[in-house]
Amino acid sequence: MSSRTPSPAAEERAVIERGANRAGDKIFSGTATGAGVVILLVLAGVAAFLVGQAVPALTADKAEVGDGEGLVAYVWPLLFGTILAAVIALVVATPIAVGIALFISHFAPRRLAQGLGYLVDLLAAVPSVVYGIWGIVVLSKAMAPIYGWLADNLGFIPLFAGPASATGRTIFTAGLVLAVMVLPIVTAIGRDVFLQTPRLHEEAALALGATRWEMIKYSVIPYGRSGVVSAAMLGLGRALGETMAVALVLSVSNVVTFNLISATNPSTIAANIALNFAEASGVDVNVLIASGLALFVITFAVNFVARLIVSRSGAKA
């Protein structure tokens, strides 16, 4: 009488079923499920609060909102400035962060790589107000003559049309400060992702005659692409919601302009709320919360798109 050998899939199911009956596994499963539910409840609570508090601003008369032009006219310049500053930060920080991550993971000696890794992690722990003070005291003054040169020599480009700010407190300076703040986040995640590249892939590329750069180009970067996208989106989320650094650096005029070096700058939603919430009253409070709702929606959309990109990259891989 022959005995039938169970398939690997059946054995795996049996192991899972036996594990599911253990008390420790039940506790862990319940705790993980509860944590996920709590996150959803908190997110729903924040969304409900924002919507509830924003309703009076949405239904208010135009004359009661901002300068009497309505909620859309009030929020749009803030939303534009928020996105513009975050895009500047991401464009500047991502290539530099990827380069630093590759240097730490594949080029630097081990001791130097460890030291740089610790330094990057420490940069992420610096308070935003410190970055803001550095931006207004050091960076803005250093950028002022550069803005003057850009206005004189590249003024035909709308981004540098000028007149250049004499103080250097522009939307571009704010974007550079945000880039420095985003840099450690993207670098740390990119470094960890690149270090997870299978060693066999790297050795196979080198065995086929690839140089170190070609090995990184065809093995490491494709393997870590989804992780870099996730890191960039996390950095973008940090840049979208940053408050104090932008509030300290930016000279605000609440306009919509692509001129990056002028003293006339759009503000950001987070900075505008921080600067005006303490003195607001009545419907003005609801208007500020309505602008916060717009920022909440934009941040949620950014994370949703990032998840979609990562999932598609993983499916292609």
What would the keywords be for this entry?
mainly alpha, 11 helices, flat, 317 residues
Describe this structure in words.
By secondary structure, the protein is mainly α. It has 2 domains: 1-59; 69-316, Orthogonal Bundle (MetI-like fold), CATH 1.10.3720.10. It is 76% helix and 0% strand. It is built from 11 helices and no strands. It has helices at 8-20, 23-59, 71-107, 110-125, 128-153, 171-195, 199-207, 212-241, 244-249, 269-276, 283-316. Helix 7 (199-207) packs across helix 8 and helix 8 (212-241) runs antiparallel to helix 11. The protein is flat. The mean pLDDT is 83.
Percent helix, as a range, is over 70%
Query: What's the N-to-C terminus distance?
Result: 46 Å
Number of strands: 0
Radius of gyration: 25 Å
Shape: flat
Number of domains: 2
**Spans where pLDDT lies below 50 across 5 or more residues:** none
Which second-level CATH architecture of the largest domain applies?
Answer: Orthogonal Bundle
List the helices and strands and how they pair.
Elements: H1 8-20, H2 23-59, H3 71-107, H4 110-125, H5 128-153, H6 171-195, H7 199-207, H8 212-241, H9 244-249, H10 269-276, H11 283-316
Quick structural overview:
With 317 residues, the protein is mainly α. The protein contains eleven helices and no strands. The longest helix has 37 residues, at 23-59.
